[in-house]
Amino acid sequence: MCHVTRDMPSDTVRQRQKGASDTTHRDDTRGGVKKGQDTKSAGSSPLGACVRLIVKLLLIVTAGIGVALIYIFIAPDDRYPVPFSLADPPSIKVNNHLSSAEKLYEGLVHAPEQIVHHNGDIYTGTSDGRIIKISQGQISTVARLGSATDCGGYENEKKCGFPLGLKFDADGYLIVCDAYLGLLKVNIATGDVHVLLPSSVLINGRPLNFLNNLDIASDGMIYLSDSSSYSRRDFIMDLLDGRPTGRLFRYDPVRNTTEILLEDLSFANGVQLSKHEDFLLVAETFRARIIKYNLKGINAGKSEIFADNLPLFPDNIRPSSSGGFWTGSGACRFREKPFNGIDFLASRPWLRKIYTYLPMVMLFGLDTTGSMVLELNSKGEVLRFFMDNEARHVLMTSAVEDVDGVLYMGSYGQPYIAKLDSRKF
């Protein structure tokens, strides 16, 4: 016995026409000891036993890898990843402005994806399925969205809910996109929660697997994104798969009807109306771009690219105080970066196939070095950006709430709200 001591696609966005429905060989010589042979040969020593054991283990591991590779390449399943393309990342002038941001309520707010400033107070959602209000520095729970009480863990997300997009309507109700529960209306005075559009509802034969973000027009119409055919818990699989399955909807709360405006989006994310509501923006996160959907004029009902080949993978989109738009991200891409993981994986579906067999916990670090918030003007041109190049201070910036130049930044995976005065830069 060996004793060891140890201290170990298509990139095309499809548009819906108005009115469309929605055995191992082993050399085991056991002959007796030849006359005159030393019985204490190397093969029977403890060291020899260790060597044989190590060799056997290596053979087993190699065989296992071989079987896995044969399965992956020779007999792939029907969901073999598809390649997609990204342009060469843009060149930028790196800064670390986010490293000077202030962290608010650290450890008290978990995964505040969207920040809403309303009547002097801050509202946000948390990973345990709550809507909270922050008034004069005091945190209170407005509502619990799900049916479970043991919340805050990865295992119970489906029962507890995970609020993402938030927006107040004209009547003062908080409208919420919950990744698991659907589209909800919250009475912030009583805490009552009403389901407008349950996640189980089938739209063109598919449920709402991952409602993400929304905006509300002056006529009450709600525009919202359904990110993927995968759920929030498995969102990395959307990247590894490569098939664009995101959708953009228009929901009429009066008639309780839903219309598909765009589909085949690569992880549909942030949704934001223009100031004059003549167009709508939706982020395509895994294509590093933002799509513009025209609502008025001769191009009404048609889409076009608003901003392409961005130095980040855009998340939520919100207005900037200068008349443009802010978007955040926990994953950057630019020429000066030593390695752009998502760009590298895009044209290598075989590598993404291998990744699908790894535990999910090993996939969250695919490309999470660096965080950024970026401002675009009304034409989709980059005005400025603030970043933490190595993501040592501010991580995973998902959204920006611009209050007269003071930026409040949310995060889908961090326990704080970041605050930065953009007027100092």
Please state the CA-atom Rg, rounded to the nearest Å: 26 Å
Summed over residues and divided by their number, the pLDDT gives a mean of 85
Number of DSSP-assigned strands: 25
The share of residues in helices is 10-25%
Through-space gap between termini = 67 Å
Shape: globular
CATH class (first level) name? Mainly Beta
Q: Which architecture would the CATH scheme give at its second level?
A: 6 Propeller
Number of continuous helical runs: 5
What's the name of the CATH homologous superfamily? TolB, C-terminal domain
Tell me the CATH topology: Neuraminidase
Overall structural domain count: 1
Main sheet: strands, sense, barrel:
5 strands, antiparallel
Helix and strand run = EHEEEEEHEEEEEEHEEEEEEEEHHEEEEE
Structural class: mainly beta
What report would you give on this structure?
It is globular and about 85 Å long. With 425 residues, the chain is mostly beta strands. The chain has a single domain (97-424), classed as TolB, C-terminal domain (Neuraminidase, 6 Propeller), CATH 2.120.10. The chain is 12% helix and 32% strand. It is built from five helices and 25 strands. The strands form six sheets. A five-stranded antiparallel β-sheet has the order 1-14-13-12-11, with no helix packed on it. A four-stranded antiparallel β-sheet has the order 2-25-24-23, with no helix packed on it. Strands 3-4-5-6 form a four-stranded antiparallel β-sheet, with no helix packed on it.
